[in-house]
């Protein structure tokens, strides 16, 4: 499902992404951060204790986390919204209790990005508070009914070991395909729409670009992780550059996916790409 925050940022809980409607800039969230944001949306206006959040976002998925980890993910979500142009203080810290998604922020549920754009273009006729409440109530009811049917015990009996392995395989394959498509957008930018790259730094003489924008606090940590993999598997070569993308969960939980490609030019004048060598890891 898609949710619009303040008619500026669209959150896609399926793709774990945040997108600015006006600029189409997109930031991918770690799966954990996506679950956390979905939880706040579901209980907007209700203060959630740290224990409740840790149980729902980490414990129920077989992970363990501390209050410090929770605070880091809250900070990550806030910074990503700010990077996309929404500086609203929507996740409020309740001292010695927990956090709440304030009702002052407007969250709308839509089916597609087309619907999201239509919301923005018809701001003169916004939803009334009653219509908005009914929409969210319908969503909450649907998910509550589903949770009654698919209990944890039922899932444990239905998901066999091979099914889980197959799911992870599809997940990894989808990530590789996404990165490859974005890389092709860059290489053939003269023929099709270009993809914007963001300079993260350098590894020796090779510039390092990322596919999505990151906060200044994360760029340094990401570059260190990319450099560690690159120097071992894809060392810098003269007149080459790197294109890379990694999940933020690698920095927090030490688990996640990383894509890196080293590309070279045919010559220094035309800047035509001659070849690329790519690597994908899943820690």
Automatic annotation (TrEMBL):
CDD domains: trans_reg_C (cd00383). The chain crosses the membrane at residues 166-188. Residues 1-103 form the OmpR/PhoB-type domain. It comes from the Bacteria. GO terms for biological process: phosphorelay signal transduction system; regulation of DNA-templated transcription. Keywords: DNA-binding, Membrane, Transmembrane, Transmembrane helix. It holds the Pfam family Trans_reg_C. InterPro entries: OmpR/PhoB-type_DNA-bd, Sig_transdc_resp-reg_C-effctor, WH-like_DNA-bd_sf. Gene3D superfamilies: Winged helix-like DNA-binding domain superfamily/Winged helix DNA-binding domain. The keyword Transmembrane applies. This is Winged helix-turn-helix domain-containing protein. The lineage of its organism: Bacteria, Pseudomonadati, Pseudomonadota, Gammaproteobacteria, Enterobacterales.
